[in-house]
Structures are given as C-alpha cells and as structure tokens.
Design a protein that fits this description.
Blueprint (H helix, E strand, L loop, with lengths): L4 H9 L9 H4 L4 H13 L5 H8 L3 H10 L4 H13 L14 H13 L3 E7 L2 E6 L2
Antiparallel strand pairs: 1-2
Helix pairs in contact: 4-5
Length: 133
C-alpha cells in the first residue's frame, strides 16, 4: 500500500501516532532521529522518497545523502549484492528496491568504483552489468 501526502495528513489529523512530527520542521534531526522517522514512514507505506523528503521537510538530495551515509538502504545494498553474486547480467531496472533508476545507477556506479561490477554491454538505452569474480 502506498500512501499519498494527503492520505498521511488525514491519518495524522485522525490522531495516528507519529514520532514527534514537529521536530521535522524545527531543526536538523540527529542521525538516530532521522533513522527512526525514515523507517517509520517506510513501514507506514510511504515508499516514494520524494514524498518522504517533503514530509520530513528536507530536499530529496539531502534525504538520499543521509540514507546512504547512515546506511539505511540495507535492502537495496543486499539486492545489489545478490545480483552481483548471481553471476548473471543485470541492468539498473533489476535493482527494484532502489528509489529510482537514477538512484539504482548510483549504487551500480559505486560497485563499479569498488571493482565489484563491470559493464558488459548495452541493451537498447540500458547498460548491462555483471559482477566481477
């Protein structure tokens, strides 16, 4: 289930428990608060990272930077690791848990820089990758 901002607002207005919602607007959250609130929003059905950023009162780039810096993206990293270890070719579209294909590309570029992945050829507009043994 995916909630829109309006759905989330309606739930909050109805008294739905939320981790100190006002702190999102008043100050920069500590890493612990950020992780708690991000995970709460994701577990509440909000899977659009642009909506999460808006709800938390930060820009999309800031949100994504903190997610990666705090390693809150374990599910995406695990999925990429499975793709690498499978030995089969893959594209950014196969990284389905990433918030966008642009973000998927970022994870793959990181794996390339770490020597874990190499490009193996294009397929249409998508580049194909495979894990490095």
């Amino acid at each position: 289930m995916t909630l829109s901002i309006d759905d989330l607002e309606a739930l909050l207005d109805a008294g739905w428990e939320v981790p100190e919602e006002d702190r999102w607007r008043k100050r920069r959250l500590t890493d612990e608060e950020f992780a708690e609130d991000y995970q709460w929003l994701r577990s509440s059905g909000v899977d659009c990272h642009r909506m999460i950023a808006k709800r938390m009162g930060v820009g999309y780039t800031t949100l994504m930077t903190r997610i990666v810096r705090q390693r809150l993206d374990r599910d995406v990293r695990d999925q990429l690791e499975q793709l690498i270890e499978s030995g089969r070719e893959f594209t950014s579209f196969d990284l389905t848990l990433a918030p966008s294909t642009d973000a998927a590309g970022g994870y793959i570029r990181g794996a390339i820089m770490a020597g874990r992945v190499e490009a193996s050829g294009p397929v249409g507009i998508q580049r194909v990758f495979r894990g490095v043994a």
